[in-house]
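BUG-160 | component: ligand-complex export | severity: low

The export step for adenosine-5'-triphosphate jobs runs without errors, but we want the raw record kept on the ticket for reference. Input record follows.
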Amino acid sequence: EMTDLGELLHQISERFEMITKDKNIGFNKDIPMHPLYVDMDKDKMTQVFDNIVSNAVKYSPDGGQITIQVITRAKAIDIEVTDEGVGIPKDSQPKVFDRFYRVDKARARNLGGTGLGLAIAKELVESHDGYISIDSEWQKGTTVSVTLPYSVHEKAGVSE
Ligand code: ATP
Ligand code: MG
C-alpha cells in the first residue's frame, strides 16, 4: 500500500527518543517535509527501521548522535541511519546480514537480542525490490542504507 515514508520515520524516531531518554541520544532528522508516498507494507518496513534504529541506539555511547536522512532520487529513495557508535570491523561487515551473526559475542550477550534483526531486515527489504547495505568504521560509527523503488510522481493510491 502507499505509505508516507517520512511520517513513518518521524514516528519511529520519536518513539526511540522517548524510550532512550536515559541515554541522551540526539536524534537528527533530515527528512523532506512533504509526503513521500512509497509502495510498501507498512508493518514490515516498520520492523526494518525499528531494527536499524534500535541497533544504532544499542551500539551508541551515551550522548551519541543518530542521524536519519532521506535522499530522493529519480526512481529510488534512500534512507540512511548513521550512528557514532562502536562500529564494525571491515571483515565482519558482510556477515552482519547472516542469521545469528554478531560481531562481539560477549558484548552481544550483555546487550540481548538474537542476531536475527538484520537478516530479517534484508529479507523484508528485498521482498520490496530494495537493497540494504552497511558501511562502518571500527570505533567511529556505522551507516545502514536502505534503498526502495520510488517514483516522485506517485500519489496515494495512484501510481503511473
Ligand atoms: P537482534 O536484532 O536480533 O535483537 P542483534 O541486534 O545483535 O540482535 P542484528 O540486528 O542482526 O542482531 O545485528 C547483527 C550484528 O551486527 C550485531 O550483533 C552487531 O554486532 C552488529 N551491528 C548491527 N548494527 C550495528 C551498529 N549500528 N553498530 C555496530 N554494530 C552493529
Ligand atoms: Mg538488531
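Assignee comment: Attached the raw record above. Residues 51, 55-56, 59, 83, 85-88, 96, 101-104, 108, 113-119, 142 surround adenosine-5'-triphosphate (ligand 1) (CB under 6 Å).
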